Amino acid sequence: MPALLIALVMLLADFLFQRPPGLWALLVLLATEWLKNRARTVRENTFVAEWLTAAGALLCITLVYRLTLGILIVAPGMFSLALMQYGMTVLAYPLVAAASYVVFGVRRTTPGEFDHTGRTL
């Protein structure tokens, strides 16, 4: 996905959930770009390693988000609510991956595979 589209969707989510505009969008954008750079390494590992990598990135941006709000003296909300949101997101990851595979036919690429333009993936 293009970085601009990710930033725009997350900025709209900031407005919708009445979060400080741009902070979560920036953190998600940074995490997705970091994950994109690690895509080849993650692709060569198992699904569990992919799941743990995504969970770790989400944990990092969640902690940075709460820390930043604390430094700026903005009420970040209840910690238990953030913990539940994180936990449910991590638990939903395999379900979304399975649904993407079954319903949409999304599959993991193998090392050395080419896309429709002839570039390596």
Sum up the structure in keywords:
121 residues; mainly alpha; 5 helices; globular
User: For the residues shown, what is the average pLDDT?
Assistant: 90
Biggest sheet layout? none
N/C terminus separation: 14 Å
Oligomer: single chain
Low-confidence stretches: none
What's the number of helices?
Answer: 5
| Element-level helix/strand string | HHHHH
Going by helix content, strand content and strand pairing, the class is mainly alpha
Shape: globular
- Work out the radius of gyration: 16 Å
E-strand count: 0
Q: Which percent band covers the strand fraction?
A: under 5%
Fraction of residues in helix: over 70%
Outline the structure in words.
With about 120 residues, the protein is an all-alpha fold. The protein has a domain at about 30-105. Helix content is about 70%, strand content about 0%. It has five helices and no strands. It has helices at about 5-15, 25-35, 40-45, 45-70, 80-105. α1 packs antiparallel against α2, α2 (about 25-35) packs antiparallel against α4 and α4 packs antiparallel against α5. The chain is globular and about 50 Å long. It starts with a helix and ends in a 17-residue tail after the last helix. The mean pLDDT is about 90.
Brief account:
By secondary structure, this protein is mainly α. The chain is built from 5 helices and no strands.
Topology:
Elements: H1 3-16, H2 23-37, H3 39-43, H4 47-71, H5 79-104
Helix pairs in contact: 1-2, 2-4, 4-5
